[in-house]
Automatic annotation (TrEMBL):
It comes from Geodermatophilus nigrescens. Residues 85-119 are annotated as: Disordered. Belongs to the YajC family. InterPro entries: Preprotein_translocase_YajC. One of its GO terms (biological process) is protein transport. The keyword Transmembrane helix applies. The keyword Cell membrane applies. It is found in: Cell membrane. Keywords: Cell membrane, Membrane, Protein transport, Translocation, Transmembrane, Transmembrane helix, Transport. One of its GO terms (cellular component) is plasma membrane. This is Preprotein translocase subunit YajC.
């Protein structure tokens, strides 16, 4: 019975530290495996770029502007984005797309209304 609090602390440590670290590592590996030349990415610091070269296993060359190629560490890639013209994934079965309906503009100011009278 004296080991129960210690066991709870170990379980809390695993749940709060180890499991989220594993999830982050798995996500980073998926991001690294999705890298290919021409893929748009987001770099650490918010730089939007396109992969221009993958020659070195530790670094990545990205094009940040036409003709401007910069070398980053691969770990600096935080997100692989969809290409600009790409359609998002397929719709789920039974899912419908509803176009937004624009409501007519209303003028709630006092004054000439539909009757032409001033309040």
């Amino acid at each position: 019975m004296e080991l129960f609090p210690l066991l709870l602390l170990v379980l809390a440590f695993v749940a709060l530290v180890v499991l989220p670290a594993r999830a982050r590592k798995r996500q980073q590996n998926q991001t690294q495996s999705a890298l290919a030349i021409g893929v748009p990415v987001t770099m650490a610091g918010g730089v939007y770029a396109t992969v221009a070269g993958l020659d070195d296993p530790a670094t990545i060359q990205v094009e940040v502007a036409p003709g401007v190629v910069v070398t980053y560490a691969r770990q600096a890639v935080i997100q692989v984005r969809q290409p600009a013209g790409a359609v998002p994934g397929p719709l789920a079965t039974g899912e419908t797309v509803v176009e937004p309906v624009e409501e007519p503009l209303r003028d709630d100011r006092p004054g000439d209304g539909p009757s032409g009278k001033t309040l």
